[in-house]
Each structure stands twice: as structure tokens, then as C-alpha cells.
Write a structure and sequence with these properties.
By secondary structure, the protein is mainly β. The chain has one domain. The protein is 13% helix and 48% strand. It contains two helices and eleven strands.
Length: 174
């Protein structure tokens, strides 16, 4: 019964947090967050990278891959250009069970990956004097721009506040 409730909750949670008609990848045990954008439905997935003995891989703590819905929903690694210029992530260890994360294309977002007492990883975003446990970023791109010269209109962070309530924050990039 508890398992059915959890599945029901996850199903409706993902539906309620999706942009209209955007598919959400099946959840994984180590999911940190996803990134979607307004150009197409492809999704970039960020999972914590645990070793077989449930320790965080210190050398490569975050696995990043993409779900290519424009190609039938297959999972692919990032291309070299995506990794270096768009969706890659840099992680640096600050302390035991604490990493600073930086998205290569949006360094102004302060992210911390933490390991909770339950052994699960999560990412906190600190922005506009608020802390959000981030589950998703949606990038609204300016219309009429080419894929080689994109500009962000806004970024929407989805997640949970310190009390466990769903929340979202809109950021207008400078």
C-alpha cells in the first residue's frame, strides 16, 4: 500500500510540475534534478553517482545524460559541445557529503549537493534570499534566436522549500 501511494504521488507530482505537454523522465533512485527548455522536449538529467558500496564517487559525483524525446526517448550521453558549453557541470568537494556544483552555462546559480542522513543526495539552490531543494529547471529561450546564439528569457526553478512545500522561483537573467 505504501509503495502504491509513493508511485501515485510521484506520478502526479511530475505531472503537476511539468510544462504543458513536456514528458518527464522516469525517476531514478539517485535523481538530483532535470533541465528542460522551450526549444524542444529533450531533457537533461543529473543523477548522483554512487559506487556499488553506496559511497559518492568523489572524482565524478554527478552523472549527466540526456533523454532525447525528438528521437523516441532514447538515453544518450551529452555531446562534447553540450558538456563544455551548455549542460555540463563542475563539482568540487567542500566537506564530507557536501559538494559545490556549477552549471557550465549558468554560473550565477549557487548550488550545493548534500547527502542526507538517509544516504540520499539532493541539491539546494540559494537564490533571491531563498533556499530551494531543486528538482527541475526550465529554461525559457527567447524566440527567433538560432541554436548557436541562444538567449534566456527566464529560468524557472522548481523544488521544495525548507518546510517541504512545493515552490518555484523565476529568474530573469541579466
Amino acid at each position: 500500500m505504501r509503495f502504491c501511494f509513493l508511485c501515485f504521488f510521484l506520478f502526479f507530482y511530475t505531472l503537476s510540475n511539468a510544462q504543458e505537454n513536456y514528458p518527464i523522465p522516469a525517476p531514478t533512485e539517485n535523481r538530483l534534478f532535470i533541465i528542460q527548455h522551450s526549444k524542444n522536449h529533450n531533457t537533461y538529467v543529473y543523477d548522483a553517482n554512487f559506487t556499488i558500496d553506496k559511497m559518492l564517487n568523489e572524482k565524478d559525483p554527478v552523472l549527466v545524460y540526456r533523454v532525447v524525446y525528438t528521437d523516441g526517448g532514447i538515453i544518450k550521453p551529452l555531446t562534447a559541445i553540450q558538456r563544455k558549453l551548455a549542460y555540463g557541470i563542475h563539482a568540487s568537494k567542500i566537506a564530507d557529503k557536501l559538494y559545490k556544483l556549477k552549471l557550465v552555462s549558468y554560473g550565477g546559480l549557487s548550488l550545493l549537493m548534500k547527502i542526507g542522513q538517509d544516504g540520499k543526495a539532493f541539491v539546494e539552490a540559494h537564490i533571491q534570499n531563498q533556499t530551494i531543494i531543486m528538482t527541475r529547471l526550465f529554461l525559457k529561450m527567447k524566440e527567433g534566436r538560432s541554436d548557436f546564439n541562444p538567449k534566456l528569457e527566464q529560468v524557472i526553478l522548481y523544488g521544495f522549500d525548507g518546510s517541504g512545500n512545493r515552490t518555484q522561483l523565476k529568474i530573469i537573467p541579466e
